[in-house]
Each structure stands twice: as C-alpha cells, then as structure tokens.
Amino acid sequence: MPQPDGGEVTRSNSGTAERTDLQKAAMAVGAVFLLVGVLGFIPGITSNYGDMSFAGHHSEAKLLGIFQVSVLHNIVHLLFGAAGIAMARQARTAYLYLVGGGVIYLVLWLYGLVIGKESSANFVPVNNADNWLHLLLGLGMIAAGVLLSRRAAAATGTTR
Predict the structure, then answer these.
(1) Burial 75-106 (b: 16+ CB within 10 A, else e)
(2) Cα distance between residue 10 and residue 19, in whole Å
(3) Where along the chain do its domains lie?
(4) Residue 18: which residues within 8 A CB-CB, separation 6 or more?
(5) Which one of 12, 41, 53, 115 counts the least CB within 10 Å of its CB?
(6) 116-152 residue pLDDT tens
(7) DSSP result, 57-102
C-alpha cells in the first residue's frame, strides 16, 4: 500500500503492517539508547557509580569503565531512545530520527572537541571515548537513514 512518504507498507499474514528497514533501524537505535540509559544507572556496569553527579565534568562515573556519564547524560540517552522508538512508527519520522539524530551527534562530537574537558562548558559530560563514539554514531545514523530511505525509494520507484 503506497504511503505519503513514497515508502511501501506490506501486510503480514496476520493483517498487521510490517515495518520498513528504515523503521527497524530507528527502532533498533532507539532501543540501544534506552538500554544504554538504563545501564548508566547500574552500579558495576557503570564504574565509580558513587561518584556520579547530576551534570558536569566532575562526574567520575564511567559506563563500562570507558564513557563518562552523569545523571543528565543517562536521562538524555533514555529520552533519545524513547524518541527513536516513537519515531519508528512511520518511515518518514524514522528517517528524520536517524538523519536528524546523526546531525545532533556530529554537533556533540564537535562540541566535545572544542570545549575544555575540565571547564564548566562540559556539562553533559564527555571524554575522548565519548567523542569518538559520537562521531561514529553521527556518521552511522546519517548513513543508515540516507541509504535505507534510498533503498526503499528504489524498490518502490519513487524519489525523495
């Protein structure tokens, strides 16, 4: 059945709509962010858990002993994950989540490069491991959004 965004929705044998690969990708990214947000609040998975602050570079907590986190950082992951799951309901919003979220992560990568790690501007907080992860997430999300939307458009003979 044709959709306003040019994508196709197919019906399974049970009569329910099947998700496009674009929607599945947004759902998966959202689920991972939800998981990361929850894991950031679990002692043991997050090292130095007792030294976690609400925000700022003074938080010594590190998810998996690598990525600097704070309560605010974890809440942002939870909200970003929930947004991904909600936006995965439609192909158009799934595309916006992946590409827009990718742009946000590239901006966070740039932010992490230019701020002083010990300055009050590092309120999220981020460290070098976070910066590399933000770069990879940004590029990966944008690539997934663009490539999966092009593949869907090619399959249906439509253009964006």
Answers:
(1) ebbbebbebbbebbebbbbbbebbbbbbeebb
(2) 8
(3) 21-156
(4) 9, 10, 11, 12
(5) 12
(6) 777 777 777 778 899 999 999 999 999 999 999 987 6
(7) TT---EETTTEE--HHHHHHHHHHHHHHHHHTTSHHHHHHHHHHHH
Q: How far apart are CA 135 and CA 120, in angstroms?
A: 22
Count of alpha carbons within 13 angstroms of residue 52, beta-carbon side: 25
Within 8 A by CB and 6+ apart from 155, the residues are 8
- What letter represents residue 149's amino acid? S
N residues, the chain: 160
Which three-class secondary structure state does DSSP give residue 35?
A: helix
The span from the CA of 68 to the CA of 64, in Å, is 9
